[in-house]
Amino acid sequence: MKKQTCNIEKYPELKRQYKIIAFDWDGTVVNSRKDEIPELIAALEQLLEQGVCIAVITGTNFKNIDGQFSRHISGIHKKNLFILTNRGSEVYNFDENSQPVLLYGLKANGEENRLLDKIAEKTKHDIENKSENIKLNLIYDRLNRRKLDLIPEWENPLKSEIGKLIVETEKKLKNHGFSEGIKGAFALMENNAQSLGLKNAKITSDVKHIEVGLSDKSDSVKWIMENIAKPNSIFDKEILILGDEFGSVAGFDGSDYKMVMENHKEITYFSVGKEPNGLPPEVKHIGGGPRCFLEIIK
User: Fold this and answer.
1) Sign of CA dihedral 239, 40, 295, 270
2) Strand 53-57 and strand 20-23: pairing?
3) Which runs of consecutive H residues, i.e. helices, occur in the chain?
4) Which tens digits make up the pLDDT trace of 224-267?
5) Kindly report the CA angle at 91 between 191 and 257, in degrees rounded to 5?
6) Is the pTM of this model over 0.90?
7) Cβ–Cβ < 8 Å for 208, 185
8) Are 73 and 86 in contact (CB under 8 A)?
9) Other CB atoms within 10 Å distance of the CB of residue 156
């Protein structure tokens, strides 16, 4: 089968020089956290050496990104690298010895942790009450958030399988009697957060999980704008943001749409994802997954 080209040359936006390049990780940079990415690391390191700020915006923890990426880079230019982890809850940078430094950390207090537990547990209970013999899992050990796994029998689906994942998760929920499907599970989590009193709860989903937390990727982008762009007089047109889930998924916004800043119209956004339901007008579609992401970076 003929290899699909990325057609980067058709996008004049990708011929610009950017001072900040920010991107999602899973599905955008890598297909799997087991991937080895030496060619991409070399390309990103060249940008760091040229003074470009590179910012990883991810839902996962620092250890995962460091093991796959940042630990392979050393030198004073590593100060231009920022890892924004746990859906907006942490920001890491690197010192003159290339060692990680936590610049920002949000930590739920006792009451917030109790509420996160209650919201996730009530949502699981509500779905089970409307269903017959359905298996759902709760994941508690995530910083400032809880995850309800709607399809635990499918471990580690690839982002490239998003279409099949939607079909299989919807089919599972509806076959077990939960007719509202994924969108209904998402709405339940939202409603439970409101009724139980967690102010400004952030609800996100990658289809497999519905998450309730204190922060999301919008908080990561806001941090970049306030702490990197603003003090360094970097204009919106000098910022490029890439992801793979900007479009709607199962009736709600994709997790990367949280990176789109409403009042910053000149930031450039590209998706390398499949985006089966189309994209918001701010985002251009290049597709191709991590392969085309590499071509963009190069």
Assistant:
1) negative
2) parallel
3) 38-49, 62-68, 110-129, 162-175, 181-196, 217-224, 289-297
4) 999 999 999 999 999 999 999 999 888 888 889 999 999 999 99
5) 45
6) yes
7) no
8) no
9) 8
